[in-house]
Amino acid sequence: MAQERKPVTTVKLQKMKASNEPIAMVTAYDFLSARLADEAGVDMILVGDSLGNVIQGQESTLPVTLDEIIYHTKMVTRAVKSAFVIADMPFMTYHGSLDHTLHNAGRIMREGLAKGIKLEGGEELAPAVKALTLAGVPVIGHLGLTPQSVHVIGGYRVQGKNSEQARKMLKDAKALQEAGAIAVVLELITEELAEWITNQLSIPTIGIGAGASCDGQVLVFHDMLAYDPDDRRKKFVKVYAEVGRAIRDGFGDYVNDVKSRKFPSESHGFKGDNEVLQYLYGSTLK
């Protein structure tokens, strides 16, 4: 029997950065996917607002609500024994007053039982990060392609391709670190910039489409397992299993068996005893 892993903590994540041990992170949105990820040895699980895209079928993450994040976080934390569970703060739930931000983060921690929260943005969010940290909420930042700002940045494009953007992103990362962030997600930025930022920070960087120099990597559950067999493959995603095709084939086989009366067979049914048959039908059935 495999030895049970100790829970991943903020201290453990910092030690992984210091010892150059890569951090493996995935998204999960329900009990079973979280349990499987945890049992596989994933270090961190993100209950991402990407659920808007992959669970709800939305075009962006913007429609996801705080109640929906809490609902899915409850399912994930109920399943996880070791991984460090982080939940996204949805669009416009952390851009008002500090009281507003603290209240919303508190709900995620208290009701969803998350270990921390993630928010998108840079230096402008430093006061919120500091306030959350002082309140006992571990915070992960998110820079580069920030999906909640997709309409501002002009679509899903690689970020940090010029010197101005690069300098701004490093400044943002340092501001988040100084405010108390425990890690920073770097999404869809150039490999050179990701390496530069990673080397400048004392907290871990978690990359997605940011190359191999980050301290860790994160992928969306549905992307890495090809849950949608017809989805266009993203360049930065490695597919580890063709789950969607297997599920669709399984449904197809089931439909064919039902239509041809191959299912259920005799082995899938239950027989009553003669007393019950006599009561129901007035005679036993052969």
UniProtKB/TrEMBL annotation:
Cofactors, names only: Mg(2+)
Gene3D superfamilies referenced in this protein's UniProt entry, alphabetically: Phosphoenolpyruvate-binding domains (3.20.20.60)
Keyword NAD: no
Pfam family, one: Pantoate_transf
Subcellular localization(s) per the UniProt record: Cytoplasm
HAMAP family linked: PanB (MF_00156)
Protein name as catalogued: 3-methyl-2-oxobutanoate hydroxymethyltransferase
Species assigned in the record: Paenibacillus lutrae
Lineage of origin: Bacteria, Bacillati, Bacillota, Bacilli, Bacillales
